[in-house]
Amino acid sequence: MKKWREIRQGAQYQLTSRFVGILLGLLFVVNVAFVSISLYTIYDYLTNQAEEIFQTLEDLPQETSDWEALADATIAKSEDDAIRFVLADGPTYYSAEGKEIFSELAKGRALPIFKGVIVVGDDVYYFQQRQQVDRTIELAIHGNMVIEMVSRMLMISLFLNIFAIIIGSAIIYFFVGKWSRTLQRMTQEMKEIETTNSQEKQLTVPDNPREMQQVATSFNHLLVTQRQAIARETQFVTDASHELRTPLAAIRGHVQLIKRRGQSHPEVVLPSMEFIDKESKRLETLANQLLVLGRTTTNHSEKRVDFSKLVKQEIEKLQTNSTQIVTFSVEENIHYPGNEIELQQVCQNLLDNARKYSPSDATINISLRAEQEIVLEVQDTGMGIPDEAKEKIFERFFRIDQSRSSQVEGSGVGLAIVAAIVDKYQGEIIVTDNHPKGSIFTVKFPRR
């Protein structure tokens, strides 16, 4: 009973039952129409037969000495038909067995829908009367043969309908079952992915139907995206823990040093306090950068930012705070719809990155121009970036030379912030080599 309930709840059973229901409804309408048309055709046929007989009698002479022979000749095509001549002077003449047939018609039942149709037991007659000069002609045409022929056609049609329902149901059940098995396989694979937590397993993409193929493809794409996001977040937690642990451990070490030796050796207090101040600022900077990185996915109010003015302001800060030679080429009146703080973060982090990784006497060149896109370009003459690291530098906390990471200020989050903001504005950031040495960071914002 439970298994039958599960079968009834399945897509295969429900779709097949709906198909059969729709097919039965259509066949019912078709058969009703067939019966209606058949009845109208029979009635029209009998009417035409009667009209032909009356037309033939009108063309015959009105006077004859043998009325019974004329009656038999008129209905010679069918022995079951009957005709009666009622003359004006009184005599009445019947065809062979006509008297008995008309006697039975008097006891029959007329159908209200079809005028002139009389049912006598198992027989159906079409009765019509016509007045011609000095005689009245009454005609009864037997319709059983035509009705039987149409009934046979209807039975054949019903048999073909039943055959079509059986074959159609079997075919639809087979194909729906095939699709249902595809869905069941996909469901089973989803459960396996959930239980095994496999990082490689994906759904098998069926060849057809197209909708299931699209669902499986979209799910696999979502699965890859989710796994990548989980991997990034796991790496982020690991890296963040490492970055936070180092300054915190150093701060605690100096706090313990002050506790142990501060009173007896006051000379250690000032250096320790300066170190604590430096590391706490580093923690504050890191926390602020992580908050900025988290906010890049949220919506901000946008306005037309004077991008040219903003870039020039950041260049002035760089010239003030760095020993490098700064050259620039900034087109005027480039405005861009966006959040001013985010666009400032892009400029600030790119320029700061160029300053940190360029020698003190090197040259940094910045350009801003409006082409098909808004292009911001920062060129440095630092140590350069290996090809295998060009994509990784935008990951959080990634450093090209881990052995020198403590010698270069910063937390390794700046370029990740740049990448997140550029991606938010559907832009693109490209890293290429600057010859003879150094790197070129090119940011392209689409015009909006």
TrEMBL record:
The chain crosses the membrane at residues 20-43, 153-176. Its EC number is 2.7.13.3. Coiled coil: none annotated. InterPro entries: HATPase_C_sf, HATPase_dom, His_kinase_dom, HisK_dim/P_dom, HisK_dim/P_sf, Sig_transdc_His_kin-like_C, TCS_sensor_his_kinase. This is histidine kinase. It comes from Candidatus Enterococcus willemsii. The keyword Transmembrane applies. SUPFAM superfamilies: ATPase domain of HSP90 chaperone/DNA topoisomerase II/histidine kinase, Homodimeric domain of signal transducing histidine kinase. It catalyses: ATP + protein L-histidine = ADP + protein N-phospho-L-histidine. The keyword Transmembrane helix applies. Residues 239-448 form the Histidine kinase domain. Keywords: Kinase, Membrane, Phosphoprotein, Transferase, Transmembrane, Transmembrane helix, Two-component regulatory system. It is found in: Membrane. Its main location: membrane. It comes from the Bacteria.
